[in-house]
Amino acid sequence: MKSAPSSRQHRIRGSLLGGAVGDALGAPVEFESRADIVRRFGSRGIRDFVPLDGVLGAITDDTQMGIFCAEGFIRAYVRFCLKGICSPESVIHHAYMRWLKTQGEEPNRLTFDVGMDGWLIGLRQLWVRRAPGATCLSALREAPGLGGRAPNNSKGCGTVMRIAPLGLGSLPDAPIGLFKFAADVAGLTHGHPTACLSAGFLAVMISHLVEGASLPDAIAAGKRLLVAEPDRGETLRAISDAEVMAVNVKADPAAVEQLGGGWVAEEALAIALYSVLTTSNFEDAIVLAVNHGGDSDSTGAIAGNIAGALYGTDGIPDRWLAHIELRDEISSVADDLLAVREDTLDVDDQAVWNRYPGW
Fold first, then answer.
1. What does the alpha-carbon distance between residue 285 and residue 226 come to, in Å, rounded to a whole number?
2. pTM for the complete prediction?
3. What residue ranges define each of the domains in the chain, with the CATH number in brackets?
4. Is 261 exposed, middle or buried (0-12, 13-18, 19+ CB in 10 A)?
5. What is the pLDDT of residues 98-118, one digit of tens each?
6. Which of 113, 218, 244, 268 could form an SS bridge with 205, CB 3.0 to 4.6 Å?
7. Is there a contact between 207 and 178 (Cβ–Cβ < 8 Å)?
8. 264 pairs with which residues across the strands?
9. How far apart are CA 97 and CA 9, in angstroms?
10. Which of 74, 53, 62, 58 is nearest to 99 (CA)?
11. Does residue 139 come out as left (phi exceeding 0), alpha (psi in the -120 to 50 range) or beta?
């Protein structure tokens, strides 16, 4: 195992790239049973990228939405610095609307045109549609405005698979209140409290990992905030199940399915936690997180976000990093999140405005 780097940059890059790696490894087997995966790849399951849509290391909507979440967060920071007022949830919602348009969809109820500026919208790889979540699409299509909670009761994993950038760009004690902020951003598409609280927990946990916290300490920090929430039951139980199983059951792909299929938020979070808790390096964590008969790309992405923040970029195997789609662009977004976290982004620089216009 390579030693984890000590710098925030390597942890933030590791988390964002790690999420993309887990997404890309799990995507080709997302709808396959564990038995089918074994028949196709052998008893150890899938361990290396296989082409998706003819692309090796292809990312899906999980990484796409995460990148647009990061863009919206950074644009909100630019706007606040320059104008002194901002609704970050609304700015991120607007970023998600840009993602919606890359998927060939249009918001049906907005009374204004979606701004198609900034730099991400020009990346043609982000315009590819790879099984986007139905709830994310429908919630964005039917949103009457920006910043409001989605009027549905979905607790799909589309909240947790995209939320890591908020934890990467925010200090644990950020004045904005990271737990509630992430939960509110999750609520833009998913109305069930469990979906939102799972996202709040994950964002806080990742923020602590970036500061060098151990995984148990980062989990404890997230739980301290979670237990104060009235609707904590399902999320807290899923986290506890993952912790208990990690103590009693060795890293075993067959055991992963005891935590569920990962299609809903708390199950995806639990699978990712178990995968990282029962392994000692990035590769083993991600392989464990994707080799089950469930939402493999999302559980891989979440485990990649966690393990990447824990082990840094040096912990990600070179054979995966070399082929991940949009590697350089994802690294650039990660560095911009670092600048926001450390309050060093030069918002007066025209180049920064061109990338992240904060109007």
1. 24
2. 0.97
3. 8-355 (1.10.4080.10)
4. middle
5. 999 999 999 999 999 999 999
6. 218
7. yes
8. 156
9. 29
10. 62
11. alpha
